[in-house]
Amino acid sequence: MNFSMRGHDFDAKSIEAVAKKCAEYGVYGVQLVMPKTLPDYKDGAFTPAYAQKIKDEFDKENVKIPVLGCYINPSCTDAEVLCAQMKRFKEHLKYAHFCGAQMVGTETGYVGSECNEKDNHTEQAYKHLLTNLKELVACAEKLGVMIGIEGVKAFVINDPQKMRRLLDDLNSPNVLAIFDPINFLGANNYNDQDKIIDDAFNLYGDEMCVLHLKDFVIDADGNMKSALPTEGMLNTEKILRYIKQHKPDMPVVLEGTGEKDLPRVMENVQRLYDSIEI
C-alpha cells in the first residue's frame, strides 16, 4: 500500500529530516502542510528555488507529496480574512509543480466567526463557497494543477451528496476529492457509517485521489474519541476493499499516527488489506 504521513506527525523540523524519516519507515509520501511541518515557514516564502529544494530533498529518498496541504477557510465571510487565505492558496497552486506535489488540498470551511452547523448547511453558505472555489479552480486550470477537496460533517460540504453536487457545479478536470470517512461521522450517525461510506464511493469514488485513514471509538458518555487505524469502530475493511478493487495505488494518509505507533499501524493496515479477497 502507498502509506503516507502528515509531515507534522513526524518528529522532524526540516524537509531533509522529514524525507529521511519517510525512508526510515518505508513511507511512500507526505501530506505536506508547510506551517505545521516547518515552524519557520511564512506566507509568501515560496520561490521556484525554495520549492525545487523541497522536491530535490524528497527525490533523494524517493518520497512523494500526494497532497500539499493548504487548509484555508474558503467559506469565510470576513472579506479581508478571506482575501488573505485565497492569496495563500493561490501561492501554493503556483509552486505545487516545483515542489512535485500531486495536488493542493483544502477543506471547505465554515461561515461566520464560529463553526455553526446550522449556518454552514444553508444554500447561501453553499453558494458563497462555490463562488470562492470557482476562483481557485480557474487559477488551478491556468497552472495545470489539481485541487483536492475534503468534506467535513460540521462544514459546508458535510456529506457525500453535497460533495457530489460541488464536484458537478465546479465541473473541472482539475478538481478531485480527498476522502476521510470519519469526517462525515459523529456521535449521532456513526451507526450509519456503512451507508455513508457506500454513498461516497458510489457518488464520487472515480474522483477520489487520496484516503485519510484514522479511527474512532465511542466513550461511555457517548462522545466520539480518536483511535489508531484498525483499532476502533470504523469499518476499515469495507474501505480497503474498495481501494483494493478500484484504486490500489491511492495514497493512504495515516492521520493521528505518531512515530512510535507507525510500524504497528502500517503492519495492521497492510495485514487487513492483504487478507481481503477480491
How would you describe this protein?
This protein has about 280 residues and is an alpha/beta fold. Helices cover about 45% and strands about 15% of the residues. It is built from ten helices and ten strands. The protein has helices spanning about 15-25, 35, 50-60, 80-100, 115-120, 125-145, 160-170, 195-205, 235-245, 260-275, and strands at about 5, 30-35, 65-70, 105, 145-150, 175-180, 210-215, 215-220, 225, 250-255. The protein has an eight-stranded parallel beta barrel with strand order 1-2-3-4-5-6-7-10, surrounded by five helices. Strands 8-9 form a two-stranded antiparallel sheet. α3 crosses α4 (about 80-100) and α4 runs parallel beside α6. The chain starts with a strand and ends with a helix.
The helix content, as a percent range, equals 40-55%
Overall shape? globular
Q: Please give the largest β-sheet.
A: 8 strands, parallel, barrel
- How are helices and strands ordered from N to C? EHEHHEHEHHEHEHEEEHEH
Instruction: Indicate the proportion of strand residues.
Output: 15-25%
Low confidence ranges: none
Q: Number of helical segments? A: 10
What is the residue-averaged pLDDT? 96
Output the strand order for the largest sheet.
1-2-3-4-5-6-7-10
Helix/strand-derived category reads: alpha/beta
| CA gyration radius, whole angstroms | 18 Å
Q: N-to-C terminal Cα separation, in Å?
A: 16 Å
Number of strands: 10
In short:
This protein is an alpha/beta fold and 278 residues long. 44% of the residues lie in helices and 16% in strands. The protein starts with a strand and ends with a helix.
